[in-house]
């Protein structure tokens, strides 16, 4: 029987089927990893928007000093 390896477990590195929701080798939940990655991306985007807003406010303040 051929083992299909469409993706790898982010925890142990074993090959898994694309539709796998947990790793049969290390028994970790793969959907939790996707959820955590999406939360990290959202947090990074929020920090980027906050930095852009802060720069805009700083530039407005500098402009008002002239």
Summarize the structure in short.
The protein has one helix and two strands.
Overview of the molecule:
The protein has a two-stranded antiparallel sheet. It contains 1 helix and 2 strands. The model has no long low-confidence stretch (mean pLDDT 87). The N and C termini lie far apart (76 Å). The chain has one domain. 53% of the residues lie in helices and 6% in strands. By secondary structure, the protein is mainly alpha-helical.
SSE diagram, text form:
Layout: E1 7-8, E2 15-16, H1 30-64
Antiparallel strand pairs: 1-2
Entry keywords:
single chain; mainly alpha; two-stranded antiparallel sheet; 6% strand
Alpha-carbon Rg, integer? 22 Å
Low-confidence parts: none
* Percentage of β-strand residues: 5-15%
Which strands sit side by side, in order, in the main sheet? 1-2
What distance lies between the first and last C-alpha atoms, to the nearest angstrom? 76 Å
The sequence of SSEs as H and E is EEH
Overall spatial form: rod-shaped
Task: Give the number of domains.
Answer: 1
Which bin fits the share of residues in helices? 40-55%
What is the helix tally?
1
Strand count, sense and barrel status of the largest sheet are: 2 strands, antiparallel
Main structural class? mainly alpha
Return the average pLDDT rounded to an integer.
87
Count of β-strands: 2
């Amino acid at each position: 029987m051929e083992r299909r390896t469409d993706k790898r477990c982010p925890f142990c590195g074993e090959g898994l089927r694309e539709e796998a929701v947990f790793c049969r080798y290390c028994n970790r939940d793969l959907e939790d990893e996707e959820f955590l990655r999406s939360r990290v991306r959202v947090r990074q985007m929020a920090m980027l928007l906050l930095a852009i807003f802060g720069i805009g406010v700083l530039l407005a303040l500098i402009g008002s000093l002239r």
